[in-house]
Specification:
This protein has about 260 residues and is an alpha/beta fold. It has 11 helices and 5 strands. The longest helix has 22 residues.
């Protein structure tokens, strides 16, 4: 009998290959929006709630990413791992369903019409995500939605607009993750285990960043790349990365 771990990895490989084969054009289109913003000295904001915050955070400033990507980090949106106590799962479950909170988040970041926004949301239906999506549409900001169409199309919106992320984004990248977001069934266990959406969306995030870097180079623009300090030349890496932070600050200071 095939091991559960093998079944899981096979499911992940299958999902990754499907995204690679079917979403390449959408990823390229998303990168084109990102490159346009970065080339204009603007920003690419990334945002997600719950597990959707993880690919957003991976976009910068980890090794191999480029200046111009700007994760929006809301502690109330990412501290879902606390079951009890401050900023716990119950608070998160409440706050991400509250309309108006997404607009408050955007007001703190002074978005420019030439920016791009990438939203990561498995369901693409909740209030905060849709607040931000609808506001970006109203402002004419390029909007990329990384979401599961199988899940979202089968689930009604929880936003007063009645819209879901895949219905309003300029570019939609479909993770194809299942409605239950789990790939493994086990005899004797009622619910499936082995979620897939987070790993897929992280891969998509890095594919977008990498393709954006390529597009900038093709335009004659050398992007500022974060390099690993865990190398034989830590001092040189730190000097390079400090310069990258200054380059990001210059974009922020211009707002």
């Amino acid at each position: 009998m095939e091991a559960v771990s093998t079944r899981y990895f096979n499911a992940m490989i299958e999902r990754m290959e499907k995204v690679r084969d079917e979403q390449a054009r959408a990823i390229d289109d998303a990168a084109a929006l990102c490159a346009r913003s970065i080339a204009a000295e603007k920003l690419v904001f990334t945002f997600g709630t719950g597990h959707g915050a993880i690919p957003a955070l991976e976009s910068f400033p980890r090794t191999g990413t480029i200046v111009g990507f700007r994760p929006i980090v809301e502690s109330t949106m990412i501290s879902f791992h606390h079951v009890w106590g401050d900023m716990g799962a119950r608070q998160y479950r409440f706050i991400h369903a509250q309309e108006g909170y997404g607009k408050a988040i955007l007001r703190s970041h002074q978005l420019d019409p030439a920016d791009t926004m990438i939203l990561f949301s498995h369901s693409g239906i909740n209030a905060v995500i849709m607040d931000i999506a609808m506001e970006c549409r109203e402002r004419g900001i390029g909007l990329v939605g990384v979401t599961s169409i199988p899940h979202s199309s089968a689930t009604p919106s929880r936003h007063s607009s009645g819209k879901r992320l895949f219905e309003v984004a300029d570019v939609v990248i479909d993770t194809g993750a299942a409605l239950a977001d789990s790939a493994i069934t086990i005899d004797g266990l009622e619910h499936p285990v082995g979620p897939t959406s987070t790993s897929v969306t992280i891969a998509i995030a890095h594919a977008i960043v990498s393709t954006t870097a390529e597009k900038l180079v093709q335009q004659g623009i050398t992007p500022d790349v974060m390099v690993s300090p865990n190398t034989t030349s830590k001092e040189a890496a730190n000097i390079k990365n400090d310069a990258n932070y200054e380059a990001l600050w210059a974009r922020l200071r211009a707002r």
